[in-house]
Write a structure and sequence with these properties.
about 120 residues, mainly beta, six-stranded antiparallel β-barrel, two-stranded antiparallel sheet, 1 helix, globular
Length: about 120
């Protein structure tokens, strides 16, 4: 397994909502997939880590670790769809993106479940 994928057993898809506005100001278009099948680390937050995360994002529930491509321009308006090894699928709203390596490749993302 490549070094970038160590400890990353889940896979995620980055989805972006439409940005086109219709004549009445509503969003028009469909959600686009920015990238798919990206290895990621997925862990529910608990204890002290949860309390610290909720100081940045009030409804934080999970931390996702991901290696991205700078051309994806990941933002808090994007959505992550994470598939766990067990087959369960989580749709997560991005609350905070932390650049962990200084060159905009490795990110820790604080997320909350979307309904």
């Amino acid at each position: 397994m490549p070094k970038c994928c160590t400890g990353k057993r889940s896979y995620c898809t980055i989805k972006r909502a439409p940005t086109n506005l219709g004549p009445r100001g509503q969003l028009e278009g469909s959600t686009t997939t920015v990238a798919s099948d990206i290895p990621c680390g997925f862990e529910p937050l608990a204890g002290r880590e949860l309390e610290v995360a909720r100081q940045q994002v009030a409804n934080a529930q999970h931390k996702v670790t991901i290696t991205t491509d700078p051309t994806w321009s990941l933002t808090t308006k994007d959505t992550l769809v994470v598939t766990r090894p067990s087959g369960s699928v989580h749709t997560l709203g991005i609350g905070h993106i932390k650049n962990t390596d200084g060159i905009d490749r490795e990110h820790e993302i604080l997320c909350s479940e979307e309904v």
